[in-house]
Structures are given as C-alpha cells and as structure tokens.
Design brief:
It is a single chain. The protein has one domain (about 5-115). About 80% of the residues lie in helices and about 0% in strands. The protein has 4 helices and no strands.
C-alpha cells in the first residue's frame, strides 16, 4: 500500500481544467464572467471530490484485504496526503481558470473601445 494512484493524478491534472474552461466559455462570451467561473470551478472541484472518493474506496478495499489476512497495514502515504494531492491540484486549476477568465474579460473590455482610444 505504498504507491499513489498515478493514473488518477494524471487524469486530475489533464482533464478538469480544459473541460471546465470549455463549459465556462459560453458564459464568458455572454459577459457572464461569474457564472462561467462558477460552472468551470464546479467541474474542477467535483472531479477532485470524485477522485478522492475513488481513492478512499481503493484504500478501504486494501484495508479490508489486510484485515481479512489477519494483519494490520497502514497506507503510505496516509489518506490525508493522498486527498491533499487532489485538493491542491484542484485549487491550482481553479486559480488557473480564474486567470483565464480575467484574460477573457480584459479582451472583451478592450473590444468595446474603438481602436483610437486603446
């Protein structure tokens, strides 16, 4: 029980941010930046929670196997660290999503002014 779930970590790094940005884009284009941020953030945080629950289920199965074998075993790294990895990745992705939305909002605001006034 000493290995991390690297496929899940890679999935968390690669998938939620693009999906969240894709979901937020229609809202951003309609000048509803906050709703877009909420939609995109929901995707990122829900993926983190789902992957944490998957990790918890895997740890429970491993613990039950150990108990059935009559030994006590502890996961390494502990469950808290495993969950913190997904939470930190999710938080960084939400920060990135907000930075992307700031860029989109800035471009939209610049488009509203005529080129002579930019």
């Amino acid at each position: 029980m000493s290995d991390l779930s690297w496929p899940s970590i890679v999935l968390m790094v690669l998938v939620p941010l693009p999906v969240g940005a894709l979901l937020a884009t229609p809202f951003w284009r309609a000048h509803q930046i906050i709703l877009g941020n909420l939609a995109g953030s929901a995707v990122v945080f829900l993926s983190a929670v789902v992957l944490m629950l998957q990790e918890q289920a895997m740890l429970d199965r491993l613990t039950q196997r150990c108990l059935a074998a009559g030994v006590t075993c502890w996961p390494e790294p502990p469950a808290f660290i495993r969950f913190a990895i997904f939470a930190c990745i999710g938080l960084v992705e939400v920060f990135a999503l907000f930075l992307i939305s700031l860029r989109v909002e800035h471009r939209a605001a610049r488009r509203r002014y005529s080129p002579e006034w930019r």
